[in-house]
Design brief:
The protein is an alpha/beta fold and 269 residues long. It has 7 helices and 12 strands. It is globular and about 55 Å long.
């Protein structure tokens, strides 16, 4: 009988060691690269909402202003000679969930993240990407990380335009709950209506939204869908230029508050 009890105890210990970790037992880290403080702001918001540890990725030779960053960054991409990084202040092996943050450079993750991914593949970890951008790149970063980190569980990517960083806190609440990363409940958002030719009102909304971003000058929308949420009305426009008429989708929101102006949310290319 005593031998039977001992064997049962050993079996129970083995089963417990193989059981998946509960979310409360999983250790999380917010790991980010930020050049202009915007991604840092987003990283700190995620840290506050999740209780995760936080650490930054730093380059040995910092980048300069916008123009210098574009010049140096494009040379690094062409040569695939990415920047040298300072040693991390944390051991990634200690974490189960890693919130990986980056600004969008050249349509994908920033070059310092490319440096990190040369040696770190996040094998066996849950990776939750988050990005800041001027116009878009959330979808391309998500696709890139899922392809590159093929031994990790890469989740959905949260992204916000730099010009809308003040809207990130509320959006993050929904994102983190929907992804099962924090406890809570949110009402599901409705789907968009079918894409239809623009009305005069929708054309005016589109033009007002993209007027805040000069790099979209000359962009024209052809069709759109819409949805009404508790926060306002969202639009998704099929848009492009004369030579590429439907090369992207542009998301715009008009907040519910009276007198609100249309906001350019993101471009999806």
């Amino acid at each position: 009988m005593k031998k039977y009890i001992t064997l049962m105890a050993v079996a129970m210990i083995a089963l417990a060691s193989c059981a998946p970790k509960k979310s409360a037992e999983m250790k999380s880290l917010v790991l980010y690269y930020s050049q202009t403080e915007t991604t840092k702001t987003l990283a700190e918001l995620i840290q506050q909402k999740t209780g995760a540890d936080i650490a930054s990725i730093e380059v040995v030779n910092p980048y300069g202003d916008y123009g210098e960053t574009i010049q140096r960054g494009s040379q690094e991409v062409a040569s695939k000679n990415y920047p040298e990084l300072k040693p991390l202040t944390v051991d990634l092996a200690d974490y189960d969930v890693i919130y990986l943050g980056t600004p969008v450079w050249f349509g994908t993750v920033a070059n310092p993240i490319l440096s990190l991914l040369e040696t770190e593949k996040f094998e066996g970890k849950k990776v939750v990407p988050f990005v800041t951008f001027g116009s878009g790149g959330r979808n391309t970063v998500e696709d890139y990380l899922r392809t590159t980190l093929d031994k990790a569980d890469v989740g959905a990517c949260y992204g916000v335009r730099q010009a809308r960083i003040d809207k990130a806190s509320k959006e993050l609440d929904r994102f983190l709950v929907e992804q099962g990363l924090i406890e809570g409940e949110v009402e599901a958002l409705p789907g968009y209506t079918e894409m239809q030719p623009l009305t005069e009102e929708e054309t005016a909304i589109f033009e007002a939204a993209i007027a805040t971003y000069p790099m979209l000058a000359g962009t024209v929308a052809s069709t759109c869908g819409a949805r009404v949420t508790p926060d306002g009305t969202d639009y998704i426009f099929s848009a492009g230029t004369a030579d590429r008429p439907s090369s992207m989708q542009i998301v715009v929101t008009v907040p519910a508050a009276e007198g609100s102006v249309p906001e350019f949310v993101e471009a999806i290319r």
